[in-house]
Amino acid sequence: MIEVRDLHKAFGSVKAVDGVGFTARDGEITGLLGPNGAGKTTTLRMLYTLMTPDRGQVLVDGIDAVADPLAVRRTLGVLPDARGLYKRLTARENIEYFARLQGLDEAVLRTRQEALVNTLEMRDILDRRTEGFSQGQRVKTAIARALIHDPRNVILDEPTNGLDVMATRGLRRFMQQLKGEGRCVLFSSHIMQEVAALCDRIVVIAHGRVVADETPDALRAQTGETNLEDAFVKIIGSEEGLAA
Amino acid sequence: MSTVMASKARRAGTAFTVFLKEVRENLRDRRTLTSAFLTGPLLGPLIFVMLISMQVNRELDKADQPLHVPVIGAQYAPNLVDALKEGGIVPDAPVADPGLAVHRQDADVALRIAADYGKAWRKGEPVQVELFYDSSRRDTAGAVERVSRLVETYARQQGAMRLVARGLSPGTAWPVQVARRDQATPQSRAVLMFAMLPYFFIITLFMGGMYLAIDLTAGERERQSLEPLFANPVARWKILVGKLAAICAFSLASLAITLLAFAVVGRFIPAEKLGMELDLGWHFAGTVLLLMLPLVLLLAALQTLVAAFAKSYREAQTYISLLLMVPLIPSALLAFLPIKAQAWMYAVPLLGQNLGIMQQLRGDGVTSEQFALCLVGTLATALVAVGVTAQLYRSEKLAISG
Asked: How far is Cα B277 from Cα B362, in angstroms, rounded to an integer?
C-alpha cells in the first residue's frame, strides 16, 4: 500500500507538485491521470525516493520514504519514465544485474526470471543485446528487470507510451494479473481510455494538485457527464495535454 | 532470519556487482577497448621510440659527416682553410650575403675572412674571422661549435709558434687553463631527453579510464539508465565505489600495458650510442606502478566528478579533454625549469610522481621517505576527490536526464 500525504516539490520558483495526497491500495490498480506537465512524474519520483519532497510524507507499506529510503525501494518495483536499458548487455544480463543489486540469491533469481519471462512472453529476446529492441521489447525487459524481486508495490510511469496496440493490450493484461496477485499497482497516464479501462481508482492531477480522487463511476456521477472524457475535461478545466 | 542475513551479505557485495557489470559492459565497447588497451598505452612508446631514434641518428650523423661551410675570402688564408679541411670541414663556394644565407637556412654556419687577412698576418697584427650563425636554431649549435673550435685551435697553435719563435714559453700567454670534469653519468644524460616520460605514463593512465568515466556517469545519464539504477535498494556511494573500481581497473590495465611496452621497447632504443644508459626494466616498471597507484584513484574520481557535471556525453568529453591539460603542467615545468626537488614536492600529486620517475630514471632510486610522501600525499588528495564526487552523486539532479 502506498500512502501519499500533502506532497510539495518546487524547482526554483516552479511548484511542480503543490499538495498531492492519495492512497493506492493493495489488490487495486490506481491510475494517476493528468495532462503533460501536471506533476505526475515528479510525484512518482518522490514515491520511489529519487527525489526528496520539500514537504509532506510518503509511506510505502507503512515505511517512511524519507526516513528509510532503502527499505522502501526494496518493497517497490519501478518502471520509470526513462526505461534506460544497458544496450551492450542482453535482456537476461539486464535483468540479472538488477536482481543482484536487490540481493536475490541465484535460485530465487532463476525461478523469478523464469516466471516473468513466461508471463511477459519474452523468451525469444532474452539472450539478445537490447540495442535495437523495439519499444515493446524494451518495456518488457524494463518491467522484468523492475519486478525481479517480487515487490508488493508496483509503480509504472506511462507504461504504454510508444507501444503498439498489441503490446498495449498485453501490458494491460499483465497489470490485471499483478492486481489479481494482490499487489498494489500505481501507474500514470495521460490517456483517459486506458485509465478508464484499467483502474479501480482514478487520481486526477492538474497543476501539481489533486483535483479528483474517485472510482470511475463516482467520477461520472460527480461531474454529471456520462462520458468519462467529458468528465475529465470538466474536472481539469481544459482540454490541453489530454490525448484520446 | 538466516535468509535475511544472507540477503544482507549479498547486498554488501553490491559494489562488486556494479564493478563486474561495468567491466563486462565496457569490454564490449570497441572504442573503449581501443583507447584503453591499444592506442592509449602503445602510442606513447611508439612515438617515443621514433623520436629518440631520429634524434640519435641525427646526432650521430652530424658528428661523423663532413660539414659544408660557405667560406668567403678563402684565398686570403690558405693555411687556415687547410686546417679546417683537416677538421672535416668542406669549404663551399662563397655566398654574396652570408647573414642572409644563414637566416634562410641555406647554410648552418658561414665564415668570412677579411681581404686584408694576409697583410695583417704578416705584420703580426690580430686578424678577424667572422662566423655567421643563428643561435635560435638549436639544431645548428653543434656545427657552429665545431667550426668555432677549429678556428680557435688554429689560432692558439699559431700563437704558440710565434711565442716559441721569440723564445718565450707558450704558457706565458695562457696563465689559466680550464680543465673540464663532467659529472654527468650515462643515466643522468638520458634524463634530459626523457623528461617527458612521466607525462606519457600519466596520459596513459588518464586515457585508459577516460571513456569509462564518461560512460559510467554522463553516458548513463544520457541513456537514462541512472534513474532505474537508483531505484534499487543500494546506497549511492556503493554504486559509485563499483564504478570507480571499474575505471581504476581499466586505467591500471592501460598503465601495465604501457610499462610492458616500454620495457620491451627500451631494449631497442640505441641510447648507449649517445653515451646514455636507459633502464626501463622490471624494477623501473614496479617503481612507476607503485608511485602511480594512488594517482589511479585520484584521476578516476576527478574524471567522474567532471563527467557528473556535464549534461551529455559530448559535454563530458570536452571537459575531460580540458582536464587532460592538468598533468601536463608539472611535466612541462620540470622539463623547462629544472627545479631542485624539495621533500614536500613529493607529496604533491602529479609532481611527486614526476619527480619519483625521473629520479628512478637517473639511476638514483627513490628513497622510502619519498615513496611514503608521494603515496600518502596523493592518496589523501584522492580520498578528498572521492568524497566530493560521492557528495555530488547524492544530488537529486544527477539521475535526471531531461
From this structure: 9
Which residues on A lie below 8 Å from B400 (Cβ)?
A: 50
Contact B109, B140 (CB under 8 A): yes
Please indicate whether, in this complex, the C-beta atoms of A98 and B232 are within 8 angstroms of each other: yes
Mutation pick from B23, B223, B227 vs chain A, by most beta carbons of A within 10 Å, is B227
What is the mean predicted confidence (pLDDT) over A102-130? Answer: 93
Task: Compute the distance between CA of residue B87 and CA of residue B145 in angstroms, rounded to an integer.
Answer: 12
Could you tell me which of A99, A97, A11, A3 has the C-alpha nearest to residue A52? Answer: A11
Q: In what order do the strands lie in the sheet with A28-33?
A: A76-79, A153-157, A184-189, A28-33, A201-206, A209-214
Sign of CA dihedral A66, A68, A74, A75: negative
Nearest residue on chain A to B21, alpha-carbon basis: A97
Half-sphere exposure of B371 (CA within 13 A, CB side): 11
A224 CB within 8 Å of a chain B CB: no
What whole-number distance in Å separates Cα of residue B7 and Cα of residue B229?
19
Q: Cα–Cα distance between B303 and A141 in angstroms, integer?
A: 31
Say what the ipTM of the complex is: 0.91
* Residue of chain B with shortest Cα separation from A85: B225
Interface test with B, best of A9, A50, A94, A156 (most B CBs within 10 A): A50
Which pLDDT tens digit goes with each residue over A198-231?
899 999 998 899 988 988 888 777 777 777 777 7
Domain locations in chain A as residue ranges: 82-150
- Record the pTM: 0.81
Residue bearing the bigger pLDDT, B193 or A185: A185
For chain B, domain boundaries: 2-56+188-399, 66-181
CA distance A44 to chain B (A): 11
- Alpha-carbon span B292 to B255, nearest angstrom: 9
Question: From the CB of residue B119, how many other CB atoms can be counted at a distance below 10 Å?
Answer: 12
Q: If 0-12 CB within 10 Å is exposed, 13-18 middle and 19+ buried, where does residue A189 land? A: buried
Contacts across the A-B interface (CB distance below 8 Å): 90
Q: What's the average model confidence in pLDDT over A186-190? A: 90
Quick check: helix, strand or coil at residue A9? Answer: strand
Out of B7, B25, B399, the one facing A88 most closely (by C-beta) is B25
CATH number corresponding to B66-181: 3.40.1710
For the cut 50, the answer to whether the pLDDT of residue A243 exceeds it is no
Q: For residue A167, what pLDDT is reported?
A: 87
Split at pLDDT 50, 70, 90, the class of A244 is very low
The answer to whether A146 contacts B17, with C-beta atoms less than 8 Å apart, is no
